[in-house]
Design a protein that fits this description.
The chain has 315 residues and is α/β, with parallel strands linked by helices. The chain has 11 helices and 13 strands. The two termini are 23 Å apart.
Length: 315
């Protein structure tokens, strides 16, 4: 990774050009740098990285009518326009929303990817009032948003975290915080309606032990279900035999979410933030010139909430 001068991005008829005020970092970013996703996300190197952005509209295509120059916006940019950790980024206007008015650019930039991931994953299993749900890794970016969103939907929320984060996660609204350093989550949370798997590996399969018959498992890291595999272009995909057997044994619903940008849901997040139902969770803010340090910190897995790169001082 390096900070380099690049050409100002061009934009098409339906695009807007955003002067970036802040960009948040996500695990997918450092996994791209480490080469762990090259089978799924091919890159023509060198590339600018980053998906989350908040900033100000400075130019727009002739076909854009929903935004004006000077509008404060936020978005999760699509894969083909990746590169939000930069002074400017081009974004399809139909994937952008005006940022919540009651928070900073830094706070707003931390919402799109995690918020859209949590909403889409929980909507896939039709979360509803009084559902008993376990959300793994409640202090992470997706987990901390999912706790607040599930409580807004009226669910009864269990979550896991480490000792140092128990009180902090409890303040997000979780009904039962499980300290995984001295408690077995499978003994505390069982007969659940939903498990939100954010960890993968054995956690995906172990989720079947603690859901009730007919329960639902929603994952962002486990093997794809058949429907999602087709959406991802995996035409010859066959679900792992062990997973198929567990689904059948529990008559369970199992869904993988491969998050997609969605302006309607960003507007939903905007309303919830302005109403106080969702609070952005920011761990650390780095100036642009220290951006590589920000990625190295994120890759340690110790972040509590979002890691942000601020470009506010550049304009």
């Amino acid at each position: 990774m390096a900070i380099e001068d690049v050409s100002k991005p061009t934009y098409k008829d339906k695009d807007i050009l955003v002067a970036v005020k802040a960009a948040s970092l996500n695990p997918i970013d450092y996994k791209l740098v480490q080469g762990k996703l090259k089978d799924m996300v091919p890159l023509n190197l060198p590339v600018t990285i980053g998906y989350d952005v908040s900033g100000v509209v400075v130019e727009k295509g002739a076909g854009v009518s929903d935004f004006e120059i000077g509008d404060e916006v936020y978005a999760r940019v699509p894969q083909e326009q990746m590169g939000s950790v930069a002074e400017f980024v081009t974004v399809q206007s139909d994937l952008v929303a005006k940022k919540p008015e009651n928070i900073s650019f830094e706070q707003a930039s931390g919402l799109p990817l995690t918020g859209l991931t949590a909403i889409q994953a929980l909507e896939k299993v039709e979360i509803r009032e009084n559902d008993r749900i376990l959300i793994h890794a409640g202090s992470g970016g997706v987990g901390s948003f999912a706790i607040q969103y599930a409580k807004e939907k009226g669910a009864i929320v269990y979550t896991t975290t480490s000792t140092k984060n128990v009180d902090w996660v409890k303040a997000l609204g979780a009904d039962r915080v499980i300290d995984y350093t001295n408690e077995d989550y499978k003994e505390v949370a069982n007969n659940l309606d939903i498990v939100f798997d954010t960890l993968g590996g054995d956690y995906t399969f172990d989720a079947f032990e603690i859901i009730k018959d007919g329960g639902r498992i929603t994952t962002i890291v486990g093997p794809p279900d058949g429907e999602t595999a087709k959406q991802m272009g995996m035409t010859d995909y066959k679900m792992p035999e062990k997973l198929s057997e567990l689904i059948k044994e529990k008559s369970a619903i199992y869904k993988l979410t491969w998050m997609q940008p969605n302006a309607k849901q960003l507007n939903e997040i905007k309303t919830m933030v302005e109403d106080g139902a969702i609070k952005p969770i920011v761990d650390l803010i780095y100036p642009f010139e220290d951006g590589i340090d920000a990625y190295e910190y994120l890759a340690t897995g110790k972040a509590k909430g979002k890691v942000i790169i601020s470009l506010a001082d550049l304009f």
